Amino acid sequence: MDFIDLKSQYLASRELINARIQTVLDHGQYIMGPEVAELEGRLAAYTGARHCVTVSSGTEALVIALMALGVKPGDEVITTPFSFIATAEAIVLLGATPVFVDVEAGTCNLDHRLIEARITPRTRAIIPVSLYGQPADMDEINAVAERHGLAVIEDAAQSFGATYRGRKSCNLSTVGCTSFFPSKPLGCYGDGGALFTSDDALASAMREIRVHGQSRRYVHTRIGVGGRMDTLQCAVVLAKLERFEWEVEQRQRAAACYHDLLGGTLADLVEPVGCRPDRTSVYAQYTVRVPQRERLQEALRVAGIPTAVHYPVPIDQQPAYRQWADPAGCPVAASLAHEVLSLPMGPYLDRPSTHRVAQALAQALQGAGLAGDKAA
Q1: What is the pTM of this model?
Q2: What is the mean pLDDT of the chain?
């Protein structure tokens, strides 16, 4: 069993993917070819944002968003400690200070109730992460930001395709950033990412920044980066878009199956990361909280079930980032880091496979002396 089955995904769209790639090979415009503008138009229409700017990775999307907003050394940016390192990395790369605010236990997303107390005169922006595929409490976060004149950047690297109160992730705040890393719900075959905004001035700035700050050829009006998304990668995403809605539905079907199988007798020991009723998740990962994670993970490995931990060490406890940790700590994030376990997930994960995973998990719990006879 694969943790995520990219082979089956390719086979399902092979003819379209191959044709899209061949078209690029035929016209030879490998950088900023016509597929770039086509993809940007398709993605903007999908999210409802006025602008989409494709870039070389999800990390670069965060960096460019912060640069476009004018974040500079000495500024502070509020974010979560429970995410992939890129969220804080982008802040630090610009010389700004990450201010870590704890997360909610149920969703693992930034706790909006704790943000306002951490705002100072140096705060410039808030970066909530839509973790595991579910948007954070964006309306509440936007309201805090508006009261203090701050920008909000949704790190939607894992949540493209999800909805929040009827609106698409990536179009919920000042700027939305996503990733097309191959394992993401909408992935390419290398690195890639995109920025979304309905602010014309920000869109113009982001387009210039991604091409070394150029407003036109060899005229550099601002500091920039080499952040373009390759035409070939745009072609792959365009091909995958044709089945994307179906794949999102299949991810949600697999998650519902897990919910059913892990409820009841296992409910006291296996707690899935919850999805709020006013939003949807694309389940970039299907993540549960379990006791004695290392023992369970080894038992599952022996049973042929691959797992992953997203994330075993909170960012504020990473050696390179401890200098910015809150002395009071982020206890919820610290607790989650010892408990979360991601199970196989993807649109091609069928019901028998989810049964196999759930049964193996029940047996592992029993083997560890954590579940009674009825859990078997």
Answers
A1: 0.96
A2: 96
Of the CA atoms within 13 Å of residue 258, those in its CB half-sphere come to 28
195 phi/psi in degrees, rounded to 5: -115, 150
Tell me the CATH architecture of domain 6-241: 3-Layer(aba) Sandwich (3.40)
Q: How far apart are CA 212 and CA 218, in angstroms?
A: 9
Peptide bond preceding 311: is omega within 30 degrees of 0, i.e. cis? yes
Report helix, strand or coil for 242.
coil
Q: CA-to-CA distance for 14 and 9, rounded, in angstroms?
A: 8
Class of domain 244-375 (CATH, top level): alpha beta
Residues of each domain in the chain carrying CATH 3.90.1150.10: 244-375
Edge-to-edge strand order for the sheet containing 51-55? 51-55, 193-197, 175-179, 151-155, 123-127, 76-79, 97-100
For the chain, give every residue range classified as CATH 3.40.640.10: 6-241
End-to-end CA distance of the chain: 22
Nearest to 331 by CA among 84, 78, 114: 114
How far apart CA 201 and CA 343 sit, in angstroms, is: 42
pLDDT in tens, 130-155: 999 999 999 999 999 999 999 999 99
What are the Cα distances from residue 332, in Å, to 219, 268, 329? 48, 19, 9
Which is nearest to 266 in space by CA: 373, 126, 149? 373
pLDDT in tens, 19-42: 999 999 999 999 999 999 999 999
